[in-house]
Each structure stands twice: as C-alpha cells, then as structure tokens.
Amino acid sequence: MEQELLIKSSPHLADTDTISRIMWKVVIALLPAAAMSVYFFGLPAVLVMALSMATAEVTEVACLWLRKRPLAHALDGSAAVTGLLLAMVLPPNSPWYCPVVGAAFAIGIAKQSFGGLGHNIWNPALAGRIFLQFAYPSAITLSSWPAARRTFGQAASLGADAVTQASPLFKEGAVHYDYVDLLLGNGVTGSLGETCKLALLLGGIYLIVRRCIDWRVPLVYIGTVFVLTAVLPARTLPGGAASPSWASDPLYHILSGGLFLGAFFMATDMVTTPMTRRGRTIFAAGCGVIVAVIRLYGGYPEGVAFSIVLMNTVTPLIDRWVRPRVYGSRTPKPAPRTV
C-alpha cells in the first residue's frame, strides 16, 4: 500500500491551538464589550449584532458552496468574528440594511473572493465598514448619534426618541466628555465598540494572556497616537474657529473613538498583519501615525479603519523588507577592512 510522505523544513513545531479555537477565543474576548453595548443601547444593539453575524454566516456558507469547498469551514468561527467586529464598528441606530450589506461585502468580497481565510488582503470587517461609509454616508458618518440610553445605576430608556449629541471626536459642536465616562462608556456616542473601553481592555488582556495576539501591536499603536497627539499642533477649523480643547489632549484621544477596538482586535489580525515582531511593530506605528494625522488634520473625525486597511495594503512590503533570520543561521560578521 502506498504511503504519502509529508516533507517539511525544520523546525518541526507543534501547537495545540487551531484556527477554530483562536477565533472563538476572540469571540469570548469581545463578549464583555458586546454585553456593555447592549447594556447601554438596549435592543437596537442586539439587532445590529444579530443581523451582522447571521448575514456573515449565511454569506460564508453560500460562498463555500459556490467554490465547492467543505461547508464545515463555516464553523471555524472566522465568519462569526467578522460579523461581530463589523457590528461593533456600526452605530446602534444603523438601518437594518447596513449590517446586512456590510457583512455580505466583508465575507463575499473582502474575504472569499480572495480565496477565503488566510488569503484576504484586508481585514474583512473594516473593509465592510469602509464600504458602508461610502455607500451609505448619511447612515454611517452622522455627526450626531444616539447617546447611551443609560449609565451605571440608571434605568434603561428604550423609547423611540433617543437623545443625540456630537461624537467625542467630532470637531464642530464638540462635546467634551469626562475621562471616566469615556473609559466606562457612560453617555458616550458612537459605534457599539466605542462605548466601554474598560471592557475592550479586559478582552485585549485576555487575548494577550492566551497568546492569541502580540502585545507589541496595541502598545505601539496606542502609544504612537498618544505621543503624536501630544506633540503635534491641532489645525484651525474652517472659518478660523479654534480647535476644541481636547484636540491636543493625548489621553482624551486614546480613550475616544475606536482606537482600543482597532488596536486589540483588528490590527492584531494574524492574516493581514506582518509575520515578524519587528514588522508588526512597524505596522502598528504606521497605524498610529495615520490615525493621528486624520484626527488632527483630516476631514473625518476618526481614522482607525482607514489606518488599519492602508497598513494591511503595505503588509507584503513590510514582510519583504523585514525578513526573519533563517532558523539555525548566524548573522555574518563584516569582513575585515584592508588598508
């Protein structure tokens, strides 16, 4: 009987982690933030997450069937992660078609059209979010979103008339939030993943402890934004108006918007980020630079999605420039100079 021999180069390393286990660990890490978004926004948050995750799974199955791939791949958790992450970057008052169209684009175009998991160039959830931003700008980039309908210790208000106010990073008509409110999400507007930063931080620490992500990425990403927003001057607003007081406040910047969500859950994607530690450090620093520039000088109030997708695009170049040392080899010593 013929036997097939699988020949691989050394080192021969084995790991008990599988793609499915890693993906479901990411889902577990996102549960605290998802629960807090439901706590703050109520049923609308549940609807956005349910539509996004269900559409992601259905699209995954349909694409696998069309590509004649095993349908069991739809159970590896990657589609669930994409659907949940997309929901976390959408506002709670999103029309029903936004999570549906966004999730279908994320799975069908940004993931499966490139060959499925492991072959996609961009983070699928962020690609879906950017597509929605251009397809339905009035529903995605509003300057006034519903504020959290309750805070810790207060009863929920699920009425149709939601209180709206400016996003924490919106420059015209800006509202200055307290640091504690930004950390806990009390009364903070924005997407579902821009509420409780503490829950995102706990989820990120869980992924670091379980060795699912490289701690250097969120540290360098958030640290770069902190340093640049502290040293760079904020631009003058149209009409000569001065920038809001928080524009040069680095702590306000790192506690606002989707920076924590992007740094811990999207910039650490194993498929679309560099392979080496030094490469991931360069990747994270580039993301931080882009976010700081967009927030301080760009027309959009937030730049996390753009920063990660743009750096995803240059990931192959980073991997080409920053190559790991061949296992077992030594760095050659420079030849002695002759006079």
Would you mind describing this structure in some detail?
The termini are far apart. Helices cover 51% and strands 2% of the residues. The relative contact order is 0.11. The chain has a single domain, classed as Ammonium transporter fold (Orthogonal Bundle), CATH 1.10.3430. The chain is mainly α and 339 residues long.
Spatial arrangement of strands, main beta sheet: 1-2
Low-confidence stretches: 153-166
The CATH topology is Ammonium transporter fold
Structural class by SSE content: mainly alpha
Helix content class: 40-55%
Q: Cα-atom Rg, whole angstroms? A: 22 Å
Report the count of strand segments.
Answer: 2
> What CATH architecture do you see?
Orthogonal Bundle
- Order of helical and strand elements: HHHHHHEEHHHHHHHH
Shape summary: globular
Query: What is the total number of structural domains?
Result: 1
Gist?
The protein has 339 residues and is mainly alpha-helical. The chain has one domain: Ammonium transporter fold. Helix content is 51%, strand content 2%.
